[in-house]
């Protein structure tokens, strides 16, 4: 019996649906559908526009100082992660202190991130790279908001300050920024790189040797007691005060921090860097970071490296926080630009060179 028209219509509709589905899948994979992805170059161009373009330097945290030291792991971190670097032992550390902002010669008296970047290396060459700020939270939680924040806070050339006509609508559309503003308004701005607590801010997924996974944020807590800069007279601070203080302090002896791993409680927000974890948490003392020597970027090993926080050892992985992937591509774009431009002289290196020439 010849097939009816109806019998032909059914497979034709099915084939049509499959073709549509494939076309949609292709469009999604190509980034034509779904949430618009922002590439690293766009993020870095927004940073350049905000801070003024400073070729040769990091597009954020441009002013820095290298250091070397060691991490002595207690072994307690093995309860959360199978990472070799959390097993009891001593591991070499390369690090970099920096201040937020894209101007490598800006003064130190600014209410900006005081920051540390670390690379811990295991005997088999495995690495754990981190970049941390002195605040437990970040102003925004996703990449479009980060780019919008750069645009909204770009100084107006006429006043040197953000244009209120652009900033006000941004703040209104981003109520999450308020938590960070409140934190900065009340927090102590450390008067030394050595007495700041440095926070991972983003959560990471730790997996132990039995395969159990937990979400963790961490912080490096200083041995040196916290003291603050005088917020009312930041302008009066000598240009390289914080960096020189660290050079002088290290000549007198090492600085130390305890690494605390903080495990998320059920219900903690783990995909938004704008939200702090409140109340008691299981906290593990994972070891001590000891800084023993500092070097200007010209002679240290921290300048020509990308402290991409997604370079992680086995046993530590990414959480669902979208900032992590964004950071990786932005750091990479910044690194590629500055690597192609060649390095420039650092603030503290210029100072030391002048002093030794005298
Ligand atoms: C979407 C969010 C973020 C973007 C787009 C971003 C962007 C950047 C860029 C472009 C650099 C320069 C990288 C290089 O040239 O090597 C940088 C450096 C840095 N960032 Fe971020 N960042 C973000 C979030 C964060 C967060 C949440 C933290 C703190 C937990 C942080 C801490 C740092 C530190 C410490 C450095 C300096 C690293 C070094 O010394 O090499 N950033 N950031």
UniProtKB/TrEMBL annotation:
<comment type="function">
    <text>Has an organic peroxide-dependent peroxidase activity.</text>
</comment>
<keyword id="KW-0575">Peroxidase</keyword>
<dbReference type="InterPro" id="IPR024168">
    <property type="entry name" value="Catalase_SrpA-type_pred"/>
</dbReference>
<keyword id="KW-0408">Iron</keyword>
<keyword id="KW-0560">Oxidoreductase</keyword>
<keyword id="KW-0349">Heme</keyword>
<dbReference type="GO" id="GO:0004601">
    <property type="term" value="F:peroxidase activity"/>
</dbReference>
<feature type="domain" description="Catalase core">
    <location>
        <begin position="12"/>
        <end position="357"/>
    </location>
</feature>
<comment type="similarity">
    <text>Belongs to the catalase family.</text>
</comment>
<dbReference type="Pfam" id="PF00199">
    <property type="entry name" value="Catalase"/>
</dbReference>
<dbReference type="InterPro" id="IPR020835">
    <property type="entry name" value="Catalase_sf"/>
</dbReference>
<dbReference type="InterPro" id="IPR018028">
    <property type="entry name" value="Catalase"/>
</dbReference>
<protein>
    <recommendedName>
        <fullName>Catalase-related peroxidase</fullName>
        <ecNumber>1.11.1.-</ecNumber>
    </recommendedName>
</protein>
<feature type="region of interest" description="Disordered">
    <location>
        <begin position="334"/>
        <end position="358"/>
    </location>
</feature>
<keyword id="KW-0479">Metal-binding</keyword>
<dbReference type="InterPro" id="IPR011614">
    <property type="entry name" value="Catalase_core"/>
</dbReference>
């Amino acid at each position: 019996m010849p097939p009816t028209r109806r019998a032909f219509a059914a497979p034709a509709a099915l084939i049509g649906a499959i073709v549509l589905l494939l076309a949609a899948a292709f469009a999604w994979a190509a980034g034509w559908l779904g949430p618009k992805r922002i590439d690293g170059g766009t993020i870095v161009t927004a940073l350049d526009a905000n801070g003024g373009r400073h070729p040769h330097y990091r597009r954020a945290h441009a002013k820095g100082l290298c250091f070397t030291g060691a991490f002595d792991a207690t072994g307690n971190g093995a309860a959360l992660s199978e990472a070799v670097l959390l097993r009891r032992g001593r591991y070499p550390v390369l690090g970099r202190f920096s201040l937020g902002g894209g101007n490598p010669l800006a003064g130190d008296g600014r209410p900006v991130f005081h920051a540390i970047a670390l690379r811990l290396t295991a005997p088999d060459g495995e690495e754990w790279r981190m970049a941390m700020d002195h605040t437990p939270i970040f102003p925004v939680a996703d990449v479009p908001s980060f780019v919008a924040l750069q645009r909204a806070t770009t100084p107006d050339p006429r006043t040197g300050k953000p244009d209120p006509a652009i900033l006000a609508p941004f703040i209104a559309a981003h109520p999450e920024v308020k938590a960070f503003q409140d934190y900065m308004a009340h927090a102590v701005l450390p008067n030394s790189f050595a007495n700041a607590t440095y926070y991972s801010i983003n959560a990471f997924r730790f997996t132990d040797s039995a395969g159990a996974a937990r979400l963790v944020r961490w912080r490096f807590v200083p041995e040196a007691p916290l003291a603050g800069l005088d917020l009312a007279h930041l302008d009066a601070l000598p240009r390289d005060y914080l960096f020189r203080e660290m050079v002088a302090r290290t000549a007198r002896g090492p600085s130390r921090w305890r690494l605390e791993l903080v495990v998320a409680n059920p219900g903690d927000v783990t995909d938004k860097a704008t939200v702090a974890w409140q109340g008691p948490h299981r906290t593990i003392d994972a070891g001590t970071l000891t800084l023993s020597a500092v070097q200007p970027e010209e002679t240290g090993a921290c300048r020509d490296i990308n402290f991409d926080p997604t370079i992680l050892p086995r046993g530590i992985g990414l959480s669902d926080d979208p900032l992590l992937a964004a950071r990786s591509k932005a750091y990479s774009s910044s690194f590629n630009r500055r690597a192609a431009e060649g390095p420039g002289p650092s603030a503290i290196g210029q100072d030391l060179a002048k002093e030794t020439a005298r």
